[in-house]
Amino acid sequence: VVILIVAVWWVGWPREAKPEALRPMMAFLGSLGLYLFLFNGLTSADTFFLKRLSAEWFLHHGATFDVAATLSDEQVGGYRAVQNLARLPYQLMIAATFVVFPLISRATFLKDVERRRSYVRTTLRYSLIVAGAMGTVLAANPGPVLDLPYTSDYAAQGAAALIPLALGHVAFVIFAVGGTILNAAGRTRDTIVLTGVLLAVLAGSLYVAIPMSAPGSDMLLACGSATGGAMLLGALGVGVLLYRRLGAFVPWLTAVRVVLAAGVTLFVGRVIPATRPLATLAELAVCGLIFLAALVASGELGKADLAAIASIGRKKRAA
């Protein structure tokens, strides 16, 4: 309410609200609202299906309705612990969508094709690097990582599921940022169709995978794997659309280097089996440094990137 009042005071009421000017705006907002409805469905489908299908599993194996409801709540509780960590890469990169939307919109309005392509490549490149670093570090030693904020039973139950879900959210970052770019360029129909198809695929895969697994670690792994696979499919789909509509996506060499860096980091996480909290925190830092070192060694991160970061710091100090 306070923000609305301040916004009206700062911007002022529209003096000339012409219907012909409002129609395209309302059509765009309606399309954007439908996209966001489907997008939010993607973020909650796994817990919805896990709750329903795990309860049915317990009912089919002789549990009463109340017992099945309680046991299914335990499955969802364990899975939410995994979700809270796996979603960190996406939550970290939400800010990128707020930055890139007006940039793409302005470049589209000015018909500056080259600048728009540059925004797309740069935004997705850094999004993949930052999200890839965090997702890989979380997946490198999942059990002890879960054991930091949660109890040991949560860690034992959800460790296997954290790997595909954390890596899947790296792909989800690309999907979310890519969808924002397409929407900013006025391609809302593309994002609606892609998100709708992806939601259907996710729902179908969850419906098949969850009942095939026993409750506990196996069921959470099935749920996380189905969700992570759908996220990867979404990243590939948005990549095809971005390349066809705007002529740009994540540079293929960047994707290869990030995958190689992730592989090295995951290997190190398996070699260093840290279990105690302080050792786990140290391993997280080491894995993050190894990921960045691998990118530097492969030539993905260089002086130009460091200069860009330094220039941001200089601008902030000047301001």
> Can you count the helices?
12
Parts with pLDDT < 50 across at least 5 consecutive residues:
none
Helix content: over 70%
Q: CA-to-CA gap between the ends? A: 30 Å
**CA radius of gyration:** 22 Å
Based on secondary structure, the structural category is mainly alpha
Q: What average pLDDT do the residues reach?
A: 90
Instruction: Report the sheet-strand fraction.
Output: under 5%
- Could you describe the largest sheet, including whether it forms a barrel? none
Q: What's the total number of strands?
A: 0
N-to-C order of helices and strands: HHHHHHHHHHHH
The backbone outline, from C-alpha atoms, is globular
Describe the model.
With 319 residues, the protein is mainly α. It has helices spanning 2-11, 19-60, 65-86, 88-109, 113-140, 142-147, 152-184, 188-209, 217-245, 252-271, 277-298, 303-318. The radius of gyration is 22 Å and the shape is globular. The two termini are 30 Å apart. The mean pLDDT is 90.
Keywords:
319 residues, mainly alpha, 0% strand, globular
Summarize, please:
By secondary structure, the chain is mainly α. It has twelve helices and no strands.
Question: Topology, please?
Answer:
Blueprint: H1 2-11, H2 19-60, H3 65-86, H4 88-109, H5 113-140, H6 142-147, H7 152-184, H8 188-209, H9 217-245, H10 252-271, H11 277-298, H12 303-318
Helix pairs in contact: 2-3, 2-8, 2-9, 3-7, 4-5, 4-7, 5-7, 5-10, 5-11, 7-9, 8-9, 10-11
